Amino acid sequence: MIRIENEADISFSQKQRLAYIDFLLMFKGSFSRSDLTTKFEMGMANATRDIAMYKELAPNNAELDNPTKQYFQTKKFKPLFKHDARKTLVKLANNITDGFDAIEDITFPVEAPSQLNVPDIAIVARLIQSILNNKSVSIIYTSLSSGSASRDLVPHSVIDNGLRWHVRAYDRKSKSFRDFVLTRISKVTIKQQKIEPHEDKLEDHQWMRMMPLQLVAHPNNVNHPTAIAMDYGMINGILELNVRAALAGYLLRRWNVDCTPDASLSGGEFQLWLRNRQTLYGAENLTIAPGYDN
User: Fold this and answer.
1) CATH fourth-level superfamily of 7-93
2) What's residue 285's pLDDT?
3) pLDDT bucket at 102, cuts 50 / 70 / 90
4) CATH number belonging to domain 121-199
5) Pick from 37, 183, 196, 292: CA 20 to 30 A from residue 168's CA?
6) Which pTM was predicted?
C-alpha cells in the first residue's frame, strides 16, 4: 500500500518507479538517476521528474549529495510504500529488487505453510544497508542465555534457514563469526567505524568453505526409493549438493537427513541419509544435524 492521498492521479508505471526509489532508499540507503534510467530504460528527463515527484510525496526521505549525484536516505526516512515483510524477504532472497508490493491485481492459487515468525522489515533493511555499504552495526540482541544486551557486529549475509531468518556476522565481543536470529534484534544502528581485515566475509572460513553432500533414499525407512528419487530430482539415486559449511547443519535438520554412519535413525520423517558423512569433518553448528555425533 502506498501512502499517497491522490493515488489515482499516478499511473501504474510511475508507481513502480516510485516504489523502486523507495526500495533502494530503504535497503541500499541511496539511489541515483542512473539507477532509474538503467532499470526502466528511460531518459534522464523522465527520471528527474520521477525523483521530483518522490521528493514532493516524501520530502524528508532523501537528500542529494552533489559531488556524487547520489540521493541518500535521511534520518527522518519513512517508507512511502508498505513493504510487506514476507514478500520482501522472498524478493531479497531471490535478488528481485523492484520493491513493488503496492499493487496486486492478480491472486495466484498458490499456498504455503505459514511462517511462525517474521522479522521486522526495518531491522532487515538496516542490516542490508550496512552490508552493501561495508559498515558495522550496533544492535540490541536478546539471547536465551543472557537476555538483552548491546552487540557490535560486522554483518555480511542474511540467511533463511528454512525455519528462521538469521544474519551472519563477525561478533566483536566473542571475536568470531556467528549467526544471530533476526527476530531477536530490536535495534540496529549503522556505525562509521572502519572494518578490520579479520572481520571481512572472506575470513569467515565456515562460510567460504563449500561442502559436497551426497543424499540418498534412507536404506531402512523407505520401501520404494524411486519415489524419493523423484521427490528430490536425484540422478542415479543420489542428490549431490554443494553447501556452505556454516549452513550445512540447517539444511540437514530441515530435511531430516539421517547423519548416522549406519543409517540407524528410525521413523517416517527420516527419508534421506547422508552417504558421505565424512564430508562434515570440521564443520560447526552440526549439533542440530539428526544423528550426527563426533
Assistant:
1) F-112 protein-like (1.10.10.1470)
2) 83
3) very low
4) 2.30.30
5) 292
6) 0.80
